[in-house]
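Now for our target.
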Amino acid sequence: MSKAVIAIVKGGLGNQLFIYATARALALRTQRHLYLDTKRGYVADAYGRSYRLDRFPIQAESMPESWRVAPNLKHPWHKLVRAFNKLLPRGVRNYYAERSDWSAAQLVQLRPSRNRITLLGYWQDEGYFSDQATAIRAELSPPVPVDARNQELGRRLAASASVFIHFRRVRYPNLLGRDYYQQAIDRVRHEIGPVNFVLFGDDLAWPRSNLDFGDSPVEAVEHNSADELADLWLMTRCRHAIIANSSFSWWAAWLGGPASSGRLILSPAENGVRLLAASGWQRVSCRLDTA
């Protein structure tokens, strides 16, 4: 039997991208085939989320149903497999759940002895896959929108000193306030010079009422409310980025290219989640408000 990595996919699009990137990088390092379990993590999802990676040029197959040991993450068999593997030495486990005391280096150095291993976690750290960045960026390249409006906007953003700013404020427990965004806007204008800001997110009335963009042009993208993939593609076309405490805008910034290519990417120093800034990104001090 060929060796395999199985990734249990769950969460929103940004989390799915982290899960794929980490599992794919492990598969490449250990010369294994990647399979995705796209069902177990979405049984009774509280937010009605669904699997979205089928729109990307990923290198993975759906997990064969004959390999399934449990129908959902709360099933007793799933919990038993997870608990049993915690008792085993790391190298001989067939199930690896993300732990707060794990470092990215430990997973990167992992060389499992079992033919088939399963990963469960969000893995929100570039360190899990930075050694395979070229392949990951190619395989997670967002689909190009088919409509002329988005295509034209994408061309314009790529040809200008564009800066996307992402806002996540609806149904979000930890809100970034004015202090973070205003500091980031001021830093971009100081370090880059003339720029045009492009706003994305779920509450674009808030930045209009609370932030000062000076004399910089500002454009809000609101026509893709039903198509997050179109927004993701547009954000990757922007030259610079101010991200939210959101895995979605994290990936928009990362897929746009590394900071070493002359891009300025600003991220919150505090985000309320275990979402680590990528290499070369600048962290901006901030406080979080509870929604």
